[in-house]
Design a protein that fits this description.
The protein contains five helices and ten strands. The protein is α+β, with helices and mostly antiparallel strands. It is elongated, with a radius of gyration of 32 Å.
Length: 259
Amino acid sequence: MARGNINRVARAAASGGSRTYKESTPWGYYSVLIVIAVLGMVGIVFSRIGMQARAVAASTTTSVPASALPVVGTSWKEAIGFDICGTFQKNLPPSSNTSTVGITTDGNGIIDIAPKSASESGSKATLGYFVNHYTGLTLTSNTFQYPGQVEHKNGGVCPGLKGKANVEVWVFNSLLDKTGHKITTNPDGLKLVNAALITVAYVPSESKITQPPSATALQIANTTVPQTSSPSVSVPPGVSLTSGIGTAPVTTSPTTAKG
């Protein structure tokens, strides 16, 4: 080999190889980075889905800490109203069994929660207990009957409103809670606690559910009548506590359906 050719080969070796090698793209390295980025995004998506699922479960639960449930000697109040096809009905007449039952109403749209025995205290103080001890009132996940009126079943219709009507039960944690939470479990097991509000509705699914008109009566009752104090505990959204006492009276209007 000529000396000139030998020198050129030596210089090429000293410079690290050919131009073609130096300009090659490290595709393997970039591929690894892309895979890592994709896996990270997938993890974030599934994490958000899990958080949303847990939030929905918490907002519809009927479980309440034992310390937030009434006992014998408790005297609490919880508002309740009945919305049929966009119109709140008159308050239930006074209970006729107040001498033997401690969960009753005086006819003012308020459930008086004053257990007389262990059979209606603690976890047994439920919306179902109140309903079952009020003559003419029935309520399940599928049916609802206000005393003296026809029975309503899921899939019915409301005159003048679009969509099929269904039974819904909503809980507002306090007078300050204007949004409320829909109970998706059996309403029979909904725990009764202090200073919350319940709206039982038979309306199309897109209807806006509001606090019952007796919210004002609840405000007055809690600011003028001494109540047995209820503990301060943290519970999931969708269940009631004693917040909202002392706020300005709430004005409500009949429920209306969307679109």
